[in-house]
Amino acid sequence: MAFWNRVEHQMAELSIKYLDLWKAIGVSSNTGAGWRAKKRLPPADSCLAIARHLDVSVEYLITGSETALLDDSYTYEMPDLDYQERMEKDRKRVPRSLPDDLLGALSYCGEVQMKYIRRILKLPSGE
Fold first, then answer.
1. Same domain for 16 and 45?
2. d(CA 6, CA 70)
3. Closest by alpha carbon to 46, among 64, 23, 67, 69?
4. Less packed terminus of the chain by CB within 10 Å, N or C?
5. pLDDT by residue (tens digit) across 104-117?
6. CA–CA dist 62, 3 (Å, integer)
7. Tell me, what CATH number does 57's domain have?
8. Domain that residue 14 falls in
9. Nearest Cα to Cα of residue 22 among 1, 38, 44, 42
10. pLDDT: is 19 or 121 the higher one?
């Protein structure tokens, strides 16, 4: 079964129409119908959006199978911090004298990058 056959099968299971799918993933009906008619695989971001909307994996839509991880060596457990707490922690590392858009971008830098940026901009060490 090809990509579009699996999409159609899953759509039938969920009673979803193509027009609803195209709207949900943010493409025009002409674009979506063109992919189907030419039997083309959509761009990766659209494949992901289709898979999410149909509640299946991209791997299933493309290959027809799902592989399970053999062990836990490929998984990473995130620390138990909520988003707000992480953002507050990150923002404390960035000097408040910078414009807000730059503050937001710098909040994603690691400690080493922040030290380098502080040195380049001749900012206080922040420690």
1. yes
2. 25
3. 23
4. C
5. 566 666 677 777 77
6. 5
7. 1.10.260.40
8. 3-63
9. 42
10. 19
Q: Does 109 map to a domain?
A: yes
Using a CB cutoff of 8 Å and minimum separation of 24, what contacts does 101-107 make?
A: none
2 Ramachandran zone, left/alpha/beta (phi>0; psi -120 to 50): beta
36 exposed, middle or buried (CB, 10 Å; 0-12, 13-18, 19+)?
Answer: middle
- How many domains does one find in the chain? 2
Look at residue 54 in the predicted model and tell me its pLDDT: 92
pLDDT tens-digit map of 45-103: 999 999 999 988 888 888 888 764 444 555 555 555 566 666 666 555 555 555 555 65
Give dist(CA 108, CA 93) in Å, integer.
10
Q: Are residues 88 and 53 in the same domain?
A: no
Say if residue 57 is in the same domain as residue 105.
Answer: no
* 44 and 91 inside one domain: no
In whole angstroms, what is the distance from residue 91 CA to residue 95 CA? 8
The rounded radius of gyration (Å) of the Cα atoms in the chain is: 22
